[in-house]
Amino acid sequence: MAKEINEWDELAQRERQVENKLEETIETQRAVQRIEEEYQELFYRGNQLIERFDTFVGDAEGNYLAEELNWQTKQRQQAIFYQLEDEKERLHKENRSLEEEQDHLYYEKKRTLIEMEEKDEH
User: Fold this and answer.
1) Tens of pLDDT along 21-46?
2) pLDDT at 67 over 60
3) Ramachandran category for residue 59: left, alpha or beta (phi over 0 → left; psi -120 to 50 → alpha)
4) InterPro entries from the entry (predicted)?
5) What pLDDT is stored for residue 40 in this prediction?
6) I need a labelling partner for 34 at 20 to 30 A (CA). Which of 5, 25, 90, 101 fits?
7) What are phi and psi of 10, to 5 degrees?
8) Where are the domains of the chain?
9) What are the CB-based long-range contacts (under 8 Å, 24+) for 72-76?
10) What's the rounded Cα separation, in Å, for the pair 4 and 12?
11) What pLDDT score was predicted for residue 2?
């Protein structure tokens, strides 16, 4: 009987740890989403500024500079969004793994409870 109680306590503790990790990853996912939205806004405003600059300067040198700024901005934007996508994918996989572990612990606790009840009956 004591063995089952210890096993139950261990499973409950592991379950709490998994729930805490899951909450952390969900909060991190929200943070990554907010960061992505902030970058989108930043790049949108940057692109507007570059377009205004291009319109303001009418000479070839100014146009070349605007094109160069636009190209560099697009490169940076693409690199940042690729990193954010990789992070979102990693967090999604981690969530899925934690949810699977949570399911496993649920069934282990259920099995332990059944064993405890069977021992009480005998």
Assistant:
1) 999 999 999 999 999 999 999 999 99
2) yes
3) beta
4) DUF3958
5) 96
6) 101
7) -65, -45
8) 2-121
9) 73/43, 73/46, 73/47
10) 12
11) 63
